[in-house]
Design a protein that fits this description.
With 291 residues, this protein is of the alpha+beta class. It is built from eleven helices and six strands. The termini are far apart. The chain binds zinc ion.
Length: 291
């Protein structure tokens, strides 16, 4: 009787252990399948130490999976309604109501804290702008309602549509072709290159050049590129996601799709996709942080 009882207890323990092992093995197998079969590699947040990411800001991979559409790349959505986006806290921004992707924002917050410890205060001047916001900027410059950076009123100085578009394109994107649609790109602190030449601006720029890559950020519009927008020392992109979106745009975005605003017919002549969407600092096409 005592012996049989002991045997039953042993059986029970053995079966419980066996069941636990089976559960563990199947969980591990499904994880491996998830990593290898999805079109998003599992390293989207690898540049940030996992223990420093606030858990509520981590984007689950299943919501990242459906971002690869031309509507997303062309900014035809409302970031306030999109599950991958979050409102930027006023503490980090020059104005209210700006949105960023959750993964890009989590990386920015870590970068912000590091910079602050080094005596530098980063500030987001611009973040996500969807197609409709960009259309507002573009058409204001197109009609002369807003002067371009050198003070020209383009409706008076530049009647030729292709030439007029090229002038706006020095610093502003055509709606549908801006990286600001993606929620991965931010403008920091000051929108004049000169500001970064001396004093506080120079210190900040040097810090970004040294450390931004540790957080996955890269300066998109550097000096000396063969074509595309002029140099922008303030514009930085979160490459773990934006490099994938650039690759998606290269494969799927066509000049003919860039339409729905004044002057859009010049997109094909100018080859906006090749010269502007893809005409970036090629270092930013690398997925991982460069360290
Ligand atoms: Zn920008």
């Amino acid at each position: 009787m005592t012996c049989r009882k002991a045997l039953n207890t042993f059986d029970l323990k053995f079966i419980t252990t066996l069941l636990a092992l089976i559960v563990l093995m199947s969980a591990q197998m499904s994880c491996q399948q998830g990593n290898s079969s999805g079109n998003i590699p599992a390293d989207a947040t690898d540049s940030i130490p996992a223990d420093t990411i606030p858990q509520e800001t981590v984007t689950p991979m299943d919501t990242l999976a459906h971002i690869f559409t031309t509507d997303y790349v062309m900014g035809r959505f409302d970031p306030a309604e999109h599950p991958d986006f979050t409102l930027i806290d006023n503490k980090y921004a020059s104005r209210e109501g700006m949105y960023l992707r959750k993964d890009a924002y989590a990386a920015f917050l870590n970068m912000y804290e590091h910079a602050l410890k080094d005596g530098i205060q980063l500030q987001i001047r611009s973040a996500t702008r969807n197609f409709y916001a960009q259309k507002g900027i573009w058409e204001a410059k197109w009609t002369g309602e807003r002067k371009i950076e050198n003070g020209e009123n383009l409706s008076e100085t530049t009647p030729d549509p292709v030439e007029r578009a090229r002038k706006i394109l020095r610093y502003s994107s055509m709606p549908g072709s801006s990286r600001h649609h993606w929620g991965t790109d931010i403008d920091l602190n000051n929108l004049e290159n000169d500001w970064f030449d001396t004093g506080e601006g120079l210190t900040l720029y040097k810090w970004l050049q040294q450390h931004a890559h540790e957080y996955g950020y890269c300066q998109t519009y550097t000096a000396g590129r063969p074509y595309g927008y002029f140099e922008e020392r303030w514009h930085w992109t979160y490459t773990p996601v934006s490099a994938r979106l650039t690759a998606f745009a290269e494969a799927n975005l066509k000049n003919e799709m860039i339409e729905g605003f004044l002057g859009s017919e010049s997109a094909v002549t100018i080859d906006v996709v090749k010269h502007y969407v893809l005409g970036i600092n090629q270092q930013c096409n690398k997925l991982e942080a460069r360290n």
